[in-house]
Amino acid sequence: MEETISLKELFGTLRKRLSLIVIITLLAVLVSGIISYFFLTPIYQTSTQILVNQSKNEQSTYDINQVQTNLQLINTYNVIIKSPAILELVKKDLNLDMTAEELNGKVTVQSEQDSQVVNVMVEDPDPQKAANIANKTAEVFQAEIVKIMNVDNVKILSKASVQDNQSPIKPNPLLNIAIALIVGLMAGIGLAFLLEYLDNTIKTEQDIERALELPVLGVITEIDEQEDFRSRAGRKLNGRGEAVGS
Fold this sequence. Notes:
CATH class of the largest domain: Alpha Beta
CATH topology of the largest domain: Alpha-Beta Plaits
Strand order of the largest sheet: 2-3-1-4
Shape: elongated
Radius of gyration: 37 Å
Helix content: 55-70%
Order of helices and strands: HHEHHHEEHEHHH
CATH architecture of the largest domain: 2-Layer Sandwich
Strand content: 5-15%
Number of helices: 9
């Protein structure tokens, strides 16, 4: 019985504060949409692929041991690609107005699982600039790895390019709006319950019972003054002292 009453009170609180919940949710969605479409800078991503293969100095037949060695080297290569030794040269060749640390934040290196292919991905507000950085990074790495590791087993599989009407990878306005909808709804419900908890005014006989822990013996009904006035006027006496009206 107590659980039923509690549920009824919960739904009653939500119903009473429904307008507040709806307003907060709509405001959250509206703010999220405005920020996503008008204030956040679109970020584009381009990528190039590098193959870590057999050294040119060795025979061209397939060697499983060489493949395993190349796979083990990939983690090392991933670190070298984002190192200042490579990025400083990329920055110099492209005449980029940024530090090596800033360039490092734009570059992501990811190796395909159980393969010798490495993806070099670059994010930038300018898609053409992102493609130039990705391609130059791959070229510089291919040239410098010979000096750094004394091996020549890197080949560029594909170069980054800019597609027509390329879409940015972020922000995602629809996703942001969906998240804002959920957050706004949760915030509205939380605020509704908070206001209900802070409201200690007595409105019903049930509030009196909870506050005084005493049963209610009677309730005085609310009297409408205008209705009471019309009722009194209807009972006026006529000239012979007889009551008139209902």
